[in-house]
Amino acid sequence: MSSHGALIDRVYRGQRHIYDATRKYYLLGRDALIADLAPPAGGSVLEIGCGTGRNLIAVGRAWPEAELFGIDISAAMLEKADASLEKAGIAASLVRGDACDFDPVALFGRPTFDRVFISYALSMIPDWRAALAQAARCVAPGGRLEIVDFGQQDELPGLWRRLLFGWLSHFHVAPRADLPIAIASLAGEADAARVSCDRLYRGYAIRAGLARR
């Protein structure tokens, strides 16, 4: 696996045990995204950057008929996710892979998914535009890609922005200012019927997505 995978393992090998308890206070917008997924009955849901499995557990509880899949570059996080999903009684197919260039057929036995989502992971992926393009390619016709991540803190005090961005940098997290432009640029290639991008909580977070025809 790539050097980025090794880096993420080093950063989160210890933190994975407290990750969910600490992040619930500031990874805002995740549960609203999950509530909006609404996959078709028996449909497939892929989380790219599934981390500890927290979001997939929430999806499994909200949409119990959905078939769940997850991919992450960190072996340490996947170990935690496996244990958490088993404890919660939620079935999901989890694999280790690079969000930028994974082969869904080789890893999951299928080329596309009814819903694909990325929650606070693009800001951790160095080549995030490649990961975004790959995610769009994994969306089935009639399906949707949904994203939530840190925004640019536009309407919040400048000191807050500097402190937050400085703190996030310690975890190799960098909010993506060009996300609205990047997802709009995928509309043609993804045969999108709709592209959206909205600021949440005065710019604290950003919610983006596209829906395929």
Summarize the structure in words.
It holds the Pfam family Methyltransf_25. InterPro entries: Methyltransf_25 (IPR041698), SAM-dependent_MTases_sf (IPR029063). There is one protein chain. This protein has 213 residues and is of the alpha/beta class. It has one domain: Rossmann fold. 38% of the residues lie in helices and 24% in strands. A seven-stranded mixed sheet has the order 3-2-1-4-5-7-6, sandwiched between helices. The longest helix is centred in the middle third of the chain and has 14 residues. It is globular.
Overview features:
213 residues; 38% helix; alpha/beta; 9 helices; Rossmann fold
Number of helices: 9
Supply the CATH class.
Alpha Beta
Tell me the number of strands.
Answer: 7
Shape: globular
N- and C-termini, Cα separation: 34 Å
CATH superfamily: Vaccinia Virus protein VP39
Give the count of structural domains. Answer: 1
Radius of gyration: 16 Å
Helicity, in percent? 25-40%
Biggest sheet details:
7 strands, mixed
Strand order of the largest sheet: 3-2-1-4-5-7-6
Look at the helices and sheets and give the structural class: alpha/beta
Question: On the 0-100 scale, what is the average pLDDT?
Answer: 91
CATH topology, by name, is Rossmann fold
Which ranges are low-confidence, i.e. pLDDT below 50, for 5 or more consecutive residues?
none
Order of helices and strands: HHHEHEHEHEHEHHEE
Question: What proportion strand?
Answer: 15-25%
So, CATH architecture?
Answer: 3-Layer(aba) Sandwich
Protein name: S-adenosylmethionine-diacylgycerolhomoserine-N-methlytransferase
Keywords: Transferase
InterPro entries: Methyltransf_25, SAM-dependent_MTases_sf
Pfam families: Methyltransf_25
